[in-house]
């Protein structure tokens, strides 16, 4: 069996993804999420209107919890320029081992202790599914990216953090905490930093995990009692449930919450590497590779997405964990075909995701004012072939299919800038 035959047998090609069917289901799940019906997409209102005025010269404490890292800094906007001071990055609590609720909030407080007395405002970019309250606090609904902090679920992040800070002697009278998702922060950063004319903005993350945010009219958000104006919706797009192939199901069963985050587990950095290894091992069982390569694959227990990317960029580089697959021409061809196909499928699914958000926004018809997608995340930009495939399928699905005009931008430090804007806005 060749690599091509293996992919066809198990439905792992991009062409096996029916874009119209997936897009229709995506729209259905978005609509149900907006009305409060049962849906795999949470469609979380953020109560942020994306029309924030940024006060000049005022500092804000910024916290950024995302993926496996937790970042803190102090941000000040001066005449439109962003001044980021005292930046620190540490491991995300719960990424290595399970932490209790008190431990989680204590670690958060530890990392902003150096900013005591420097600001009464905190902007917190929280990159996990959370219900946002009208006072801009956040209540975690579940953790993705394999974070283990179950006691934090259901807690008010801002209130709990302020309790810890108060117990440590901080003056918390009048202190505010604004919780935003990283994707929402990315959208806010685009609104603040993009200098061209845009019809609307999309915030998109594809790194360790994935998510999307867009601006929705309040009249369409039937689960809240607002009809005028608009606000940013945190789609939690990584949660989208999808039809799964046999191999997808096998892999999902090796992850935390096998029935959740189907889209994220098909396209994001936390999962593409491990999934690729699972697929290669399955291909070896099917006789796709030589006995030498099959034996080597049995010995591999882990594969990171970055290793998948480096192999695709240079299959002959023998410093890569998969370099043995290049020892034989037939093995090299089959492995390259299989791995590139997995990236192409991820690119097509990503394009469908972005298309769904743009169609929901109702914008993009005027070529003078494109929909601006602020795309952030190492997987999107660094995984070999992925960005190219996303753009290829956006042209095919979004432009040729719906006549929508878009522009992808990458604004540096988007989560930090967006969280700072959110923190200064209340």
Note the total helix count: 14
Rg computed from alpha carbons, rounded to a whole number of angstroms: 22 Å
* Secondary structure tally: strands: 13
Kindly, what is the distance between the CA atoms of the first and last residues, rounded to a whole number of angstroms?
A: 61 Å
Helix content: 40-55%
Largest β-sheet summary:
6 strands, mixed
Strand order of the largest sheet: 1-11-10-9-12-13
β-strand percent reads 15-25%
- What class, by secondary structure content? alpha/beta
Shape type: globular
Order of helices and strands: HHEEEEHEEEHEHEEEHHHHHHEHHEH
Low-pLDDT runs? none
Q: Return the average pLDDT rounded to an integer.
A: 94
Walkthrough of the structure:
The protein has 426 residues and is an alpha/beta fold. It is 40% helix and 18% strand. The chain has 14 helices and 13 strands. It has helices at 3-10, 19-35, 101-110, 157-167, 182-193, 246-252, 262-267, 269-285, 291-299, 305-313, 329-361, 378-382, 386-402, 414-424; strands at 44-45, 59-66, 69-78, 81-91, 121-126, 130-132, 138-140, 176-180, 200-206, 210-217, 230-234, 371-376, 406-409. The strands form three sheets. The chain has a six-stranded mixed sheet with strand order 1-11-10-9-12-13, sandwiched between helices. A five-stranded mixed sheet has the order 4-3-2-5-8, sandwiched between helices. Helix 5 crosses helix 14 (414-424) and helix 11 (329-361) crosses helix 13. The longest helix is centred in the last third of the chain and has 33 residues, at 329-361. It is globular and about 70 Å long. The N and C termini lie far apart (61 Å). The mean pLDDT is 94.
